[in-house]
Amino acid sequence: MTLHHRAHNPLAVLGAGILLMVVFAAYTDPELSRFMVHIPNSAQAVGGYSAVDMLGQIEGTDTPYYTSANTNNTPNAQGFSIPRGSALDAVHHRLFIADTSSNRVLVFNLDASNVLLDHTADYVLGQPDFKTVTSATTQSGLNAPRGIEYDSVGDRLFVADENNIRVMIFDVASITNGENAVNVLGQTDFVSTAFGVAQNTFNGPSSVLFDSAGNRLFVTDRSNSRVLVFDIAAITDGENAVNVLGQPDFVTGTGATTQAKLYQPTGMAYDTAGSRLFVSDTTNNRVIVFDVAAITDGENAVNVLGQPDFTTLATAITQAKLYIPSGVAYDASGNRLFVADQGRNRVMVFDVAVITNGENAANVLGQTDFVTATTGTTQAKFNQPNGITYDAGGNKLYVPDYFNNRVVVFDVAAITDGEDATNLLGEIDGSDTPHYTSAGDYNAPNAWGLNTPSSAVIDSTNHRLFVSDEFNRRVLVFNLNASDQLLDHVADYVLGQTTFKTSAGGTTQSGLNRPVGLAYDTSGNRLFVADKSNNRVMVFDVAAITNGENAVNVLGQPDFVTGAAGTTQGVLDTPTGLALDSTGNRLFVADTTNNRVMVFDVAAITDGEDAVNVLGQLDFVTAAGGTTAGTLNTPNGLAYDSVNDRLFVGDSANNRAMLFDVAAITDGEDAADVYGQSDFTSAGSATSQSSLSNPYGLAFDATGSRLLVADQSNNRLMIFDSAVAPTPTPSPTAAGGGGSPPIGSGFYPERIVVNDDEGSTDASSVLVDIYARYHGTFSGTIDVLLSNVPDFATAIPFRYTVPDAEGGIWPKTVAWDLCFGIPAGQCDPGRRVVYARFYVNALSPEPALMPIRTPTEE
Length: 858
Fold this sequence. Notes:
This protein has about 850 residues and is an all-beta fold. The chain has no helices and 53 strands. It has a 4-stranded antiparallel β-sheet, with no helix packed on it. Strands 8-9-10-11 form a 4-stranded antiparallel β-sheet, with no helix packed on it. Strands 12-13-14-15 form a 4-stranded antiparallel β-sheet, with no helix packed on it. Residues about 1-30, about 40-45, about 725-745, about 755-760, about 805-810 and about 840-858 have low confidence and may be disordered.
């Protein structure tokens, strides 16, 4: 077999062969969640091409990021992964968010009124860019940052770097992504992570609070159940604290429920005018208040909220009780204390002008009343709120919503219990609009990321690109310019989902469940989608697209609510690849689990209509895989050559690509050629210039007559010159698939089947069914030779006369001794191998010899 190769970089052809795009159809590898674009330059040397654009992995500025491969464009500048702290710079108009699981702090620019300009972060600390989230113990790295605090006088940001057991201080007068910290507390240098109970060490620093008047930094040392106080008028790395609250000295770290002790404190807020420090004493389910005008180590608290006294830690869902309080924020003008009551999924608002121990809260956010504690992903609900921040100028409250992976913003000028949030970070739609009902980390899913893209087609008339986003269960639509180039990297429409933020599978008229193959009909403005897990092909009218629109037709199922697999003329089982013959109005469907390609007439579609032809099987009720010229084993990708009426089939489990002449299809016909194997009976995988291993996606370049095969398990894309078609080595073919090319006026053999009990050792005569097919008017005699050996040295002849008829199937059954002509003791009749040759005697004086189904094992 001769194969013609051009060894290029992996790519697949869409359109007219000018814009080359590839979706690596590797749905078993979720890391390849991107879409590459390559424009070839004929002056370049072969190989070494770089992509010039990409979808699925972009930076915050809509710039391709080629070294990232995570699903849904994660991480990114729009989303969070468990945010836990926040801080506001009301002077320079910036919002800082501690994105804890991403090991970073995101910085959002605000307008002059401290309102969000957009929902994309402008800077990042702790990471060199928005696409990296690696933890590090360096001068610039972070590991699970939690509480953060801004010093407006010194332009410093204090970050409780919890897992590194330190507090990092950054100079943020001007920010550079990934900049170094200028100082560190809790460690003597930037590469140590020792913990301890001492005057200069921490064990789980969780929040920080800055008193600008006194140049004091308060740090909740959670696992040591204390608050350390540092004089930071001038910072020395690793300096000693000057005071301690919650413990009598600097070497004690046990938790307790008393007026002076703390038990795993988490958050803090400060009343500058009253010199009051509010500490969320988390495990004690309370907030206690210290007078810190002048601190005495281990001093008693002056008030308590959440409990009636200093020795109680009981929990209940009431107007006065707290359960695992975390963040706290203080409104000086309104004398209000906001408490993130994490365990009850709410924010409690207390009037603290004059505190009564155990007083009732005045308002609640996240719940409609004081006796409800449910989680939710809505505009009004929380899922464990954390380190909150209050904007006094705008009367806004920023609430990091821990397990909803977002930060919600409330207008608290006048609070209505359970009111809706007014803005949101972390969960936005494609148009930079808050999406209140999604909670995926890093804003997943979204309009700019992908989760295992499997196929793509281009509409060069209306300038659109369709991409099947398999595990997001949707098809994304990107508008292109007049030259069919990407306008940006954000999808404009979505099919299969109502918004860009949902990814649930559905068996409905609008839903999809793992869409893979796509085909576009230019003349009819129809998009065909292989809806793999629903065992159907959905047909959408895309003349004008509405997000989540209904399909207009369905193939493979009788209606839009059925998704059962089957092996009939009208039902599919795991369809994957699609190819469209626009001229003949034929849709080719790789019916993968049925090991066949179904051909549908789509000139006018009736839902659930029968296929008109089948390849890979002799009929519509057979599904066994095979390795012959007429059988397939797990077909996936398809490509159609409209000029020569050829269909290419990626025959995955046989590690080959098959070429069928489909000018006039005969059910179960033999392939004309094969790529990746030297003949039609070989199926081994290999890594060579002529072999394939688990091929999946196919594309055909009509201009260059090139077949492009995504050679999945070899992690490469193979390019074959199909202008000079490969000629397979003539070899017999095994039973169970389509016949050989016609002889004479149209007669050709189909198959032979030995009908004997499995494993029989009876050497007596058995029944042999011989099938043939003929087209047109044919009469004459057929000689059939049956033998146990391929050289036909000993064979039993049978002669049949074919009557005049107009097409059809010709079955004959004969009795035959399986061990005929084989010496005694050398025959194994249980093997039941049959070799057959047919002599067609009607049209020429000399018989025509044709091998068929050799060997045949049943």
